[in-house]
């Protein structure tokens, strides 16, 4: 069954892997991007999730090209890592505004059609940083923990209308964000992962694909870590 899918922050990394996987299944897939080159083979729409008008315009474009969004993958996010004592208020609020408030904006814009259709899926990309904490990521961990609370509240709000809301929480994944870490930091994290390696974006995408599928028709409000066993029970 071909559905209209929107992946925010879908021009690279996990978002692009998700978009490619869902497109390969025959879905009509659009991605939003803020910078860099848009990916080939997908409807790419510029959008800054900090701007509610830009979010509305992006959805309007996707709806005109692909139909009302039936599956939303809220993936857009940033990091500005530093220790708390060095973290400026701008470092904190910009990450919260992008990762948490930006997700609020895109889910709210998608909700009108999802609720009207009485079906659909929302998958929110959080992080194991929300569950276990990471030194230097007070802002990022806070934003990603907030997404879990948001998703569970939305799951209860949307359930009577048949709309499912779930969270995928990747651990360290082989993306541009992980390559920005020092070798020492990256090796230290990998050393605490039972499987002994980073995730690939495609492995995270496979979990998103499952939650968007009919096989997950009785799952809502769940948080699924994709972390190689690092969290063990979170």
From TrEMBL:
SUPFAM superfamilies the record matches: NAD(P)-binding Rossmann-fold domains (SSF51735)
Molecular functions (GO terms): oxidoreductase activity, acting on the CH-OH group of donors, NAD or NADP as acceptor
The keyword Oxidoreductase is assigned to this record: yes
Record flagged with keyword Oxidoreductase: yes
Protein's UniProt name: 3-oxoacyl-[acyl-carrier protein] reductase
Taxonomic source organism: Salinispora arenicola
Protein family: Belongs to the short-chain dehydrogenases/reductases (SDR) family.
Keywords: Oxidoreductase
């Amino acid at each position: 069954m071909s559905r209209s899918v929107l992946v925010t922050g879908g021009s690279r990394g996990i978002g692009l892997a998700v978009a490619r996987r869902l497109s390969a299944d025959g879905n009509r897939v659009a991605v939003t991007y803020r910078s860099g080159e848009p990916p080939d083979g997908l409807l790419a729409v510029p959008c800054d999730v900090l701007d509610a008008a830009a979010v509305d315009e992006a959805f309007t474009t996707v709806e005109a090209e692909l139909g009302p969004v039936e599956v939303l993958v809220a993936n857009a996010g940033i990091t500005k890592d530093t220790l708390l004592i060095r973290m400026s208020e701008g470092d904190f609020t910009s990450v919260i505004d992008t990762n948490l408030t930006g997700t609020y904006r895109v889910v709210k814009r998608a909700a009108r059609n999802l609720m009207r259709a009485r079906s659909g899926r929302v998958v929110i990309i959080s992080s194991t940083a929300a569950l276990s904490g990471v030194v230097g990521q007070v802002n990022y961990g806070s934003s990603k923990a907030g997404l879990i609370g948001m998703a569970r509240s939305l799951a209860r709000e949307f359930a009577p209308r048949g709309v499912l809301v779930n969270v995928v929480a990747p651990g360290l994944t082989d993306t541009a964000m992980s390559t920005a870490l020092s070798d020492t930091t990256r090796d230290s994290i990998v050393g605490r992962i039972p499987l002994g390696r980073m995730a690939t974006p495609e492995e995270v995408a496979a979990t998103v694909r499952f939650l968007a599928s009919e096989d997950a028709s009785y799952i809502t409000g769940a948080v699924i870590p994709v972390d190689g066993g690092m969290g063990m029970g979170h």
